[in-house]
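[09:14] KT: can someone run the structure on this one? pasting the chain below
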Amino acid sequence: MMVLVVVSLALMLLVPTESGAQTEPARLSDVTVTPQADSVTVFVKTSREASYKADLVDSPSRLVIDLEDTVYAWRKTPLNVGKDPIKQVRGGQYRQGVARVVLELSRAVGYAIREEPNGLAIVIPTAAPAAGAVANASTTRPTTGAAPRPLAAAAPAPVQIAQAPATPPAAAPAPTNGQRLISFDFKDADVVNLLRILAAESNKNVVIGDDVKGKMSISLRNVPWDLALDTILDTRGLRRIEKDNVLRIVSNEQLIKDRETSARAEEARLKAESDVRAKAAEAQLKEQEAIDKKRAAEAAFIELQARGPLREETIRLSYADPEEIAKAL
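[09:31] RB: done, structure tokens below
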């Protein structure tokens, strides 16, 4: 009986420990800002994946990101950026269990939020959008397993995507050429379907390789088509190859294989051309040697003819008597 009581007490003590381990809050430890050619990337580093909510606010323009079940452990003073459109980044413990990061902006912008295992990457385009194209937005990260949820749009200009279809929509939208703005919010969506959605929103022919696969979570709000595509490609380690209005999407591994195959083919072509040139040079050398031999033979024949015919003549030699020569001396 005492053994059963001890075992029961031990189990009761273990249960809170496991529950506490599962509900341990994430820790926001760092925020970095990386300027790029056409955008600025703000990376919010956390100890684990965290749910978040993003609000784009006017007067003054700022992007507010609240991370649920997260402890704030970054700097207490604002970080001055000075890279348009981001003026400053600040943060703090908004309330118990909610860490807040605020991006002070010089103007209204669009943004893309890319979820990563150790934090959030917020990509903000540096190009100014068309007037009236950006409206107040609120983006909440869906719970795990939830179906993709579209963002509400206050302005008609951005293209609102509702669901990643198995095939592109039948009615093709107006050409974008990267100028119209894209907004969508997906959790654990198939990357091929996301690329098909973007293909339907452009006037380009998009070919997706068989090696492109996987799922991803992404939030986009009022960003250009090109930036939306690059965000998805960078997240999944994909590359695009554009030629004659055809956009081919492949993985880094496939791109390396294609380049190696092309390099081997080019090497074989150069080797074949080198062999042909070497054989041609060898044949030309042999032909020149034959010509030189022929010319030498002709020169010898001409010289022989110039000497005339051979004449045979016998000369009789007469020797003096040595004794007579001695007496004469």
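[09:33] KT: thanks! The longest strand covers residues 26-35.
[09:34] RB: yep, looked fine to me
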